[in-house]
Amino acid sequence: MTHRVAVRPSGVELEVLDGEDLFTAAGRLGYRWPTVCGGKGTCRTCFVQVEEGVENCSPVGPLEREGIEALRRPVDGLTRLACRLRVEGPVTVTKRGVRRRVQE
User: Angle at the Cα of 39 (from 34 to 44), degrees rounded to 5?
Assistant: First the structure.
């Protein structure tokens, strides 16, 4: 089963597989997602703002909580790390810099 994640402001629509995090889904589908650590949850560059569908998001785990707190954001479920965020239904997030990879 897949779940739709809309990414603003780019207008990208991702089909995320069950159990797959948002960052991994974007890469699988050919999108570049801003990161430094490559999805290990340590750089916090991949953070998103959840606009709609927060009830469809996975719970915040300890590593993600630490990252959100380091960003000086409230751990309220609205700021998430894309490399840790799994979804179980439609979600809309805001993240600048998400774009299709250039084919070489």
Answer: 60
